[in-house]
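$ fold --in a.seq
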Amino acid sequence: MPSLRKRKVLLASKVVALVAAATASPALAGPNEDTFFEAGYTMCDAHMLQLAYDDDLMNRVMRNAAEKLRRGDGARVAADVERGRQMNRYEARRCPADEVYSAEQILLFAKYWRMDSISETRAKLSGNLVRGDHKNSLEAINDAR
């Protein structure tokens, strides 16, 4: 087992990597993405829609969902996301926590749940995303502040 110092260095390097990933420019930007995210959906939800729509092109998936949202057909989008979750069998690998949460948010979530392992924290956040518990995760993060 690594010494305490080595574990702290490893944890610090992971935090630096998370911060770097969180501050990178977003791959998606535009009115369709804005509509999708402003409706409360996450990148995980977009991945679930990819499954539901059987479409690998994220921009097209976001455009289709945004068009439905703008038409007032939010129930259809919610049903499609749920269908994608079922097709995914609630597997968390499609939803990395760092696609949705900043490094600070991940650390605050760990603090709230008194978790020592960043990888365990990220796995719990990813699982929450797949189950549609994003709001509960955000509440825990805000409570930790």
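$ fold --in b.seq
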Amino acid sequence: MNTTETGEQDPKAVAHQQDVAGLLPVLAQLDSTASELEQKSAAGKQVTAADVSAYEHQAAHARHLVHVAGVTGQEVADAEKEHRGDGSTGFAARGLEHATHTRSYTPTPADSGSKDRDRNDEEIDL
């Protein structure tokens, strides 16, 4: 940590550390949203346009905050470790990865009741 000649912490360094720590909740939410999308996709569950939009907006927000704060991946990892202890889960690094390399998800087409239409058509054909 940077200190002044009087032994006090450099106010700019403290502000920067606070900026990095402030990113952690944003990165955690982005990591959570991305995990939900990946799980839905893998399980063949419906991915809605709202799911994709939320992910994209969270990624853009995180990317903006990372850029404005001028943080590095190592600073994010160190902040997570400091706030989570030695057993860190890696959420901040994964969230940062999603912010800097946003994935492309496609909403699953909604089931428009085609089975009901097929049944109705069959009944008419009889």
